[in-house]
Amino acid sequence: MTAHVAAATSTPTAVFPAAPGWLTLSAAFGDEVPTIADRDDLVVTVAPGAGHGAPACFFPDLATIEVDGTYLDTGVDPATVEPHRVGDRKRYRTIWGLLTHEAGHAHFSRWRAPAGAPPGAAAAADALEESRMEARQVQHRPGDRYWLRASATNLILADTQAHDPAAAPQMTAQDAARSAALLLARVDAGILTRREVATVDRVVRDILGTDTLTTLRRIWRAAHRTADDDATRMIELGRRWCDAIGTDANQPPDTPDPNATAHGTGNGTPSPLAGAITSAAAAIARAVAATVAPTDPVTQAIDARAADDTARQQAQDAANAVFGGTGTGFDATARHITGTRAPSATEQTASRHLARALTTAGHRERTATKTRSTVPPGRLRMRGAMTADAQRSAGAIPTAEPFTRTTRSVVPAPPLRLGIICDVTASMSALTDPVASAAWILAHAAHHTAVPATTATVVFGAGIVTPITRPGATPAKVTTFGTRYGGHAIDTAISALDGALDLSRPTAARLLVIISDGNFELETRQPGQKMLDRLRESGCAVLWLAPDKPGTDPMNGATVHTLTDPTTTARAIGQAATAALRATR
Asked: How far apart are CA 100 and CA 55, in angstroms?
């Protein structure tokens, strides 16, 4: 059979005693292999040096699978594997793919070359078995395709020996045919794609010719339709294979010439065929790495929780960096802060109007609860009363509840957390006064709401984020500022407010207000958009106050309102904030 299916006289590789982690991994793989191979008599050994000289090997007479532990992905502790969780397998997809491949042999490679079979035909049949078995495996378990692809690179390189200077494929018909059986046939098996093996296809076609390659394709497609235990048919296909490429089916495959120049090109460089195989293996590896691995709900939940914990820690770190210190006002050392001024009467009025709007936005309707009872008070239901009378007449204990009543409870409005971000970069230079006014009105409005409210305000400009109002402080004065050129640190600003106000925790009504034209650099806009999406998914409303000018580009998902003069449009801002808050219910 193939290099992955050991002969009857072969014995497993002596690899134990091994480190305890490999014993744990072997046991874990052994628990899962019955599902893949559809048999429960298999023993699995995974350890460095196992595999009988190949990346993995199946011993049919001993019902044993060996996988070489050196193929365990870098950084994975064998004692930590949890293959019962589908999503965990992506950490060690190569070695899991090798196990899947050998389990496929255990399930479907049932034929054996009979005694006296022509050596050349048997070798060709062995090569055909690789794609035949994998075709059967993905027909039986389509989800295994990802794992078979993950192991294909190592199996192909091991089977073709493309990296071995003394044994790498040369520009011969026999090597080209074997390469076709191991790579091109896997395309028809549904494992690889034509684009991934295009370079091999061209070189093989140049060596064999289109007619011969077409004949070989008919043969491997016939092998894919052959029954698992039909040894006669497989040997016959192997004989046809030898006839197609002009080799003697009664002779064993040629042994590489040890005196040949490396890779057989005569100048110490890889042959075009060996180079094409290496290139195809790299293309397959890149494609697998770019493909989302199969997963399961448990792993998705674990990964989501880990990602959320990481994001919360990053937000807390950003908040500590921005709001660190003992001050309660603005940072007087920031280059774009110019000072403070007293709020005008119209700004004070606008903040109170906005406070009423925010209070209304947090209002919840009373909840109605219906209850039933055997005695008043309540509304009498005649059907229930008649049922109770019938039960008493029958001498039974009445269980009917003929009286119903409705009670309504007031649902307390949740506390409010309000984060405000102001853009003070050069593109906002004409809007510094309305932006400063809007920031004060929004922050001060929270002080007048009928529900507990916590606010914080930051500005970003010149590539830095500066706190204007820290959590728990109400600004008595309007902070004024100028604008400067520099990076738009919108990502840091969002992260800092999330960490300071817990905007991503659904324990309060939360609103993030961004005052900006949205003209951000890609390197800050992309992470900022991810943070904004995360906040919205957690139920935080996002209101974007955009200037009325060409080129304004708010980030996706925000409720957008055009900012003119916030002292006269507080009601419109309040309506937009209300709509944003209600959208999260």
From this structure: 12
Q: Do you find a cis peptide bond into 253, omega within 30 degrees of 0?
A: no
Mean pLDDT of 558-573: 69
User: 10: helix, coil or strand?
Assistant: coil
The 10s digit of each residue's pLDDT in 59-73 is: 998 899 999 999 998
Q: Is residue 525 part of a domain?
A: yes
What angle do the packed helices 272-290 and 145-160 form, to 10 degrees? 160
Q: Are residues 398 and 424 in the same domain?
A: no
Q: pTM to 2 decimals?
A: 0.67
Cα–Cα distance between 253 and 131 in angstroms, integer? 19
Confidence of residue 485 (pLDDT cuts 50, 70, 90): low
**What's the structural domain count of the chain?**
4
pLDDT digits (tens, 9 = 90+) for 376-420: 777 777 887 788 788 888 888 888 887 888 777 665 567 788 888
306-365 pLDDT, tens digit each: 888 888 899 999 899 888 754 434 444 455 677 888 888 888 888 888 888 777 765 555
User: Could you tell me if residue 361 is left (phi over 0), alpha (psi between -120 and 50 degrees) or otherwise beta?
Assistant: alpha
Q: How far is Cα 192 from Cα 556, in angstroms, rounded to an integer? A: 38
Q: pLDDT at residue 493 above 70?
A: yes
Domain final residue pick, 238, 264, 294: 294
Handedness of CA 440, 444, 449, 454 (dihedral sign): positive
Indicate if 154 and 46 belong to the same structural domain: no
- Print the domain residue range for 13: 1-109
Beta bridge pairs of residue 380: 403
201 and 327 share one domain: no
Q: Which of 417, 403, 389, 414 is nearest to 500 (CA)?
A: 417
Beta strands in 437-572, from DSSP E residues, in sequence order: 453-461, 464-469, 478-481, 509-515, 541-547, 559-563
Instruction: In whole angstroms, give the CA distance from residue 401 to residue 380.
Output: 9
Indicate which CATH number applies to the domain containing 10.
Answer: 3.30.2010
Residues in the chain, overall count: 585
573 contacts 438 by C-beta, under 8 angstroms? yes
